[in-house]
Structure formats: structure tokens, C-alpha cells
Amino acid sequence: MTDNIVEIDNLSFGYGGRMLHKGINMSFPRGKVVAIMGGSGSGKTTLLRLIGGQLKPVDGEVRVDGTVVHEQGRRELQKLRRKMGMLFQMGALFTDLSVYENVAFPMREHTSLPESMIRDLVMMKLNAVGLRGARDLMPTELSGGMARRVALARAVALDPAIIMYDEPFAGLDPISMGVICNLIRRLNDALGATSIVVTHDVREAFSFVDYVYFVADGMVAAEGTPDELSKSTLPFVHQFVHGEVDGPVPFHYPAPDYRGDMLRGHDV
Amino acid sequence: MSRLLSGFDSLLRGIGHRLVDQFWRLGSAARFFAYTLIYSGESLRRPNLVIREIYFTGVLSLIIIIVSAFFVGMVLGLQGYNTLQKYGSSEAIGVLVALSLVRELGPVVTALLFAGRAGTAITAQIGLMKATEQLSAMEMMAVSPIARVVAPRFWAGVISMPLLASLFSMIGILGGYLVAVPIIGVDGGAFWSQMQASVDFREDVMNGFIKSCVFGVACAMIALFEGYDAPPTADGVSRATTRTVVNSSLAVLGLDFVMTSFMIS
Ligand SMILES: Nc1ncnc2c1ncn2[C@@H]1O[C@H](COP(=O)(O)OP(=O)(O)OP(=O)(O)O)[C@@H](O)[C@H]1O
Ligand SMILES: [Mg+2]
Question: Measured in angstroms, how far is the CA atom of residue A132 from the centroid of ligand 1?
């Protein structure tokens, strides 16, 4: 039990009436890099928000380090969140601060380190993502991929125990992609952290993660090590791993019958 | 007939819905206000944050405040002279200009300009920070957006407003003087001495100051709440910005009436 730093237990959640998650069970062992995969709109970002305590589950619970996230008060939740770092899908850099100040932000807020130390740490983090030279730029002057790398540096600024990455590869060129894979792995192992990587990128993810969860229809559709899953004959996994259009994973948001929808406009 | 009834029914229903929505919003605004006050201690301990926001809200509003005050003062001088000279008391022009500015125009016009200049900027900024997940990211870093983003802007507004209003009154009086004395030729000594004799510090200056403080709280709070409450889309933020101007203006004028009636009685 204790070697799982994050445990998701029979979790259900939905916005409004529509249930997005229907009883999800996952566990994230300490020190591992675990990927969560699933179609667009399957609720992966929402899952990370549930882990971070920004949303309350309808049923079930998320435990971080043994404590139930949604039962914590404000102070406890803040304490819990200081163990986490999160890379947002859009980067979410503070647009009124420079790259340097963005990475320094968590340090300034939570530590009283002297400026020289903050400077060294920020330079280290920026160097790790290859953007030390961009420290004086403003977020609006960065490309999408660069912004994501800065956000990554910011997410790990305080060496968190749990690092959550929401689509870290989207919009990166193949070289940076490889670099980021390496980086996630190295950060994880060097810090003794646990990483949760949400991604669509099967090939990249399979190359460096320890374990994979597939979510579909609000449930865990398949799980296993990359090796196991590559050999899997489950039609769902096969479709996802090989990027086939036809198969059990729907491309469409649930909708009424297409033909009926088109005809409806004409039946006046 | 039944058509009329059902139309009436849906009309009532619509009004009811909107009323309930508005009350709901008022409730969340009150809660937001309470949170801002609770978290204020945290951000007031870091005066740098507040000073930075005073620069953005206060200092950047200076130009528009100064220019408007100057013109308002000059117009007061012209209009006041025109009327007063008919009664042969054109020396009272100084009193008229000073009292109108200190009691009413200073605080009210400053607040209206502030809502247009700084309030909209605050709403748009907070709304966009929300839309681009910056507030979410802050929350995930265990930093409260209310303490870090909202409270400093609130206090900056509350502090800048009385300062800007005083400045407005001063510049306005200067504008009135310029028109009345050097241009029209009213006696300068009479202009100042009558003003000095009739403007009371407690009755006029303090009351004007109190008004501008209240307007500061109202304008800052409305701008912040509209931004924080805006739907996280381009459309939502633009609507929120408009609402800031409309609601701030109405709040300022309404509060002004209420406070004036208390102060005069
Ligand atoms: N704040 C919200 N309010 C209402 N519905 C929401 C909200 N956020 C997301 N949703 C809905 O929840 C579903 C899942 O959203 P989520 O962002 O978790 O998907 P995702 O798996 O991260 O997708 P992607 O891979 O495209 O990022 C979507 O269908 C979306 O319409
Ligand atoms: Mg997502």
C-alpha cells in the first residue's frame, strides 16, 4: 500500500449531469513514470485536476501519500500541493512575468532563499530545458513549444515528489520531444519523484515510461507495461497503439445519428 | 387568450430567472469580497506587490485624470462666472469651483474615469489570466490567486482612488483659477480668500475624501469580481469588461447619492 504515492479508488466524476469518469482505479508507485492515455476529451486533464484537488469527485476518492485529497481543508490542501508540480496543457505561464520570473515564482512564494541562490536554481532549471538563453524574454515572445518547456522548468522548480505532465509533447519537434522524454525520465530518477504523464503520443511514451493506463468511456480500458501493451491483442489497445481510424475508440463526441441530424434542418 | 397567458407566464418566468441569477451573483460577489479581505493580510505583508499595482492602476491613470480635471475646472470657471456676474458676486467664483470639485466632481468624475481606465484593464487582465489557466496554475502551486493577484489590486485601487480624486480637485481648482483670474479678470485675492473662508475642512474636504475611498472600494471590487467571474473565453472577457464600466458607473452614482444625502442632513 505505502509504496503507491497516488491512488485513485473507484473515482467517478462529471461536469453537470454527464458522467466523465465511471469508477476509475489507478495506482502510481513511488519512483515510477506512469502514462495515462486516451482519446481527446476522455477526461485526462480532468483526472489530473482531481488529483490536484481542484475538483471534487462525485464518488470514490484520490489519495496522495495516504491522505484523501477532497477531504482536506485549505491549509492541508496547500501543503499537499507543495508536493506536486503540474505542467498545464497550454503552459499557463504568467504573462506579466519574464521567463526567469516565471521559473522563480514558486521559489519566491514558498522559500526565503537569497536572490543569488534563486538565480542559480532558475538557471539550472532553464538549462535543463535548453532555454537558459531565453531567460529575459516575455511569454508572448516564445513559441508554443518553448512556452511548454519553460512551464516544465517551472513545474519542477521546487523539486516536487509528484510531477504531472499534461501533454508535454504536443507541439514539439522530434528533437525536443526526445529531449523532453529524457528529461522527464532523468528528473524523475534524480529527484526520486513520481511522474504522471498524460499524452497521446504512443511511440514516445512507450519508449520511456514504466507503466501505462488507457482510459476510454470513463474507465480504465487497459493497463500494463509498454511491452505487455504492444503485444496486446485487445482491439482497443491495438487501435490506439497503431493509430488506426476504425476501431472501438470513437473520434466523435457522442451525437445523434449523423443522417438524422442533417435531415432535421430540412423537414420544416 | 391562452397565447397571451402563456406569453405572460414565460415573461414572468424569465424575470424570475434573471432575478435569481442576479441574487446568486450578488452572493458570490459578497463571498469574493470577504475572501479578498481575509487574504489581504498575506499580501499587505508584501508591500511590493501593492506598489506594483498602484503603478499600474494609479500612475497610469494620472494623465487622463490631470487633463480631465483641468478642463472640468475651466468649464466650471466659465459657467460659474457667467451666472454669478448676473448677481454681481463674481468674486464667489472661487468658492463655487472649489466646492463643486471637492464635494462632488472630484470624487465622482475620478471614479468614473478610473472605472474606464483602470477598471477595464483589471477585468480584462484577470479574465485572461483565468482563461489561460494562469489562476489554475497558481492554485496548483499552492499559491492562492486571491492573495497573490486579487488582494494587491484591490488595495492598489483603494489607495489610488482618494489620491487621484484629491489631485483632480487640485488641478480643477487651478483650471478654474486660470479662466477666472488671468483670463476673465476676477480679483485673484478675492478668489482665494473667499474660497479659504467658505471651504470647511471637515464638512467638505473630509467628506469628499470619504466618498472617494468608498468609490475606490466599489470600483476595485467590481472590476476584480467581473474579471474573476468571467467565462473563460474571449467573448466572456469582453462582456465582463463592459459590465465593469456599466456597474461601476451605476454603483458610483448610486453611492454618491446615498452618501451625499447623509452628509448634507
Ligand atoms: N470546466 C468544464 N466544464 C464543463 N465541461 C468540461 C470542463 N472541462 C472539460 N469539460 C468536458 O470534459 C470532457 C473532458 O475534458 P478534459 O479536458 O479532461 O479532456 P482531455 O482528456 O484532457 O482531452 P484532450 O486530450 O483533448 O486534452 C470534455 O468533453 C469537455 O467537454
Ligand atoms: Mg487535456
Answer: 33
